[in-house]
Specification:
This protein is mainly alpha-helical and 88 residues long. The chain is 25% helix and 5% strand. The chain has one domain (14-86). The protein has helices spanning 52-65, 70-77; strands at 38-39, 42-43. Helix 1 packs antiparallel against helix 2. The chain starts with 37 loop residues before the first strand and ends in an 11-residue tail after the last helix.
Length: 88
């Protein structure tokens, strides 16, 4: 399986993940998803984040909360619909 540089759910650089990646059911590190999006082989927040648009909105909100300019946050989230989790 390919190791991705960016989370294939939210687009965050995996190197910025404090947990160094999400986890699979067997406890191994995910090669595709960050710890904010994926734990124990399941996606997190599926009750509220069920589309790329909702993921973009949440990511923009979090980046702005951390002090990032809103336009820059929007630019960073533009590729979310093209990530593996959201491809149809």
């Amino acid at each position: 399986m390919k190791t991705h540089k960016f989370c294939q759910s939210c687009g965050m650089p995996r190197k910025k993940d404090p947990q160094e990646g999400g986890t699979e059911k067997d406890g191994s590190k995910s090669l595709s998803y960050c710890s904010f999006c994926y734990k124990e082989g399941l996606f997190c927040h599926t009750d509220t984040i069920d589309s790329p648009k909702k993921m973009q909105d949440m990511c923009i909100k979090m980046m702005k909360k951390q002090g990032m300019n809103g336009v820059l946050a929007w630019i960073f989230t533009r590729r979310i619909p093209k990530l593996e989790r959201w491809k149809q």
